[in-house]
UniProtKB/TrEMBL annotation, chains A, B:
Source organism per UniProt: Sneathiella sedimenti
KW Transcription (keyword) present: yes
Database matches in PANTHER family: MANNOSYL-D-GLYCERATE TRANSPORT/METABOLISM SYSTEM REPRESSOR MNGR-RELATED, TRANSCRIPTIONAL REGULATOR PHNF-RELATED
Keywords linked to the UniProt accession: DNA-binding, Transcription, Transcription regulation
Organism classification: Bacteria, Pseudomonadati, Pseudomonadota, Alphaproteobacteria, Sneathiellales
Protein's UniProt name: UTRA domain-containing protein
Domain HTH gntR-type: 17-85
Keyword Transcription regulation: yes
DNA sequence: GAGTGGTCTAGACCACTCC
DNA sequence: GAGTGGTCTAGACCACTCC
């Protein structure tokens, strides 16, 4: 049992780690050393209170934070256990297109092919949770890296949530950035596919021949409302997502 | 000011959300509505205690959890503020292939085409931080969803870190899962591209014609060491990544 | 009924900032 | 010195599990 430094005993010069952090370290150390393997049942809060001389709220906070971080599992009425080795999900981070281009040392530029109000068609209505024929804002951009087209952005925006969309300046601000600034709590869902380019894509991305492209369908949500849906097309031979 | 349901008043039949969750919802609602915009200074804990009739520890827990989640920023001695709109990175979560297939209701199966020790070539040596000609473990798998090939997995594994690789059973456990189980702290980096299939891919994925594919190059790191590198090829017309 | 974790309170002391 | 957030305590009541 290690020695726990009480806050009161200590000199002001070197502030000790808070007690709950010390408890967390103690638990993690036991897990790392193999002393407490996966599925091991930890001592109860009451036992730790007694053994460590720390109040239950503090013990509880430490165990709660380790649980939130995925290290422990707690079952009310049963106990606290070392979490099973987790099958972690591997995330691919997607940056904004302008950030990707600038990070590569390129110059970002955005051509606005159109930006208008139009009646929504069936497919887009389903994506946007709107009814077919309803008016929707639609934009069609081509993003360039030092002049070379690297992404086509075909976007629908719900007029109710973003009435000012058509008046925005997209040469200095991407639509994604604009949306994120307006809605701090925006979340996104993605579907990634591969497809070969068709005549439309070849035209706007200035491709000479049929090319394999990454197609990302991104929906932007505010709670249960779909604020915007975009189809992003990247020519596979011109850009890599990292 | 909304009405906060005290735990004691309530009937046992419909347990109310805990008070700290109600405080979190209240804060988030004010943020969503624009009432509390970015950089807005929230009422102090003491004020919230008075106005809501909730104890400081409970208020504090709610604000702490929102801070940990990135919604608020707190400065000791100064106050609590709505966090600046973050230029958030949009993550695509990649599940393991067997999880993707099972989630779709399919049956996962893995064909082992080869699993051997071989001298590493130049390109792979660069990826694995090894020297050309050194012995490396290499595996070549095709994953199937109800019999249909949906992913080709061409993988190199560093023998020093995983000497038991060649003896493992890959019909019930993916290589990724095996690695994650052995190395709990494994991290990954990804490069995503699109490419059209070549003769090799057409053969192993049983594609009739040239097809657009998603190609993910995944490196698995333990600290600064590359444990494994894999090329994952998904036929774009058979699978979507979500 | 004994033991577990989940929540909440009222009060305390503290470090820090701003004036 | 007044106000802020950070931590900690001792005690309470509760829901839940297991026997």
């Amino acid at each position: 049992m290690p020695h726990f430094i009480s806050q009161k005993d200590d000199r002001p010069y070197s502030p000790p780690k808070p007690l709950y952090e010390q408890v967390k370290s103690y638990v993690l150390k036991n897990m790392e050393s193999g002393e407490w393997p996966a599925y091991f049942q930890l001592p109860s809060e009451h036992t730790l209170v007694r053994e460590m001389g720390i109040s239950r709220m503090t013990i509880h906070r430490a165990l709660r934070e380790l649980t939130q971080a995925g290290y422990l599992e707690r079952i009310q009425g049963v106990g606290t256990f070392v979490a099973a080795p987790k099958k972690q999900r591997k995330a691919i981070e997607l940056s904004e297109i302008d950030d990707i281009i600038r990070r590569r040392g390129g110059r970002h530029q955005c051509d606005v092919h159109f930006l208008q109000e139009e009646p929504i068609d069936n497919d887009a209505a389903a994506m946007m949770a709107m009814t077919s024929g309803e008016e929707v804002y639609r934009s069609y951009f081509v993003h360039r890296d030092n002049g070379l087209p690297v992404m086509l952005e075909d976007r629908y925006v719900h007029p109710k949530f973003m009435p000012e969309y058509l008046e925005s300046d997209f040469t200095h601000l991407t639509a994604d950035t604009l949306l994120s600034q307006k809605f701090a709590l925006l979340s996104h869902s993605h579907v990634v596919q591969a497809a070969v380019s068709n005549a439309e894509i070849n035209h706007f991305l200035e491709l000479e021949t049929t090319t394999a492209c990454i197609v990302i369908n991104r929906k932007s949500w505010l709670g249960d409302d779909v604020i915007s849906a975009a189809r992003l097309v990247f020519p596979g031979n011109r850009i890599q997502l990292t």
